[in-house]
UniProtKB/TrEMBL annotation:
Pfam families: DUF1797 (PF08796). This is DUF1797 family protein. Gene3D superfamilies: Protein of unknown function DUF1797.
Amino acid sequence: MSQLLGIIQRLKAMQEGNETGDVQQRRFEVNGKTLCQVKYFPATETFELEVYGDDKKTNKYQFDDIDITSIEIFDLVQEERNPS
């Protein structure tokens, strides 16, 4: 649970750091491997999650909810830490 809370705190910091109107971005990594990058767009109050695949392809997803964005990131991190 503390890992999910940490993700939520990072995303909230992105929302709160938007006084300048600039796009905020953060990367999420496990053991030095970048899993995804998140951008926060203050003008639309949306998150863009860019997921990096093993095949060097990326997929982008748009979210307007911090909780759903957090869960998606949490799932990516858990999959990397506990492969099936």
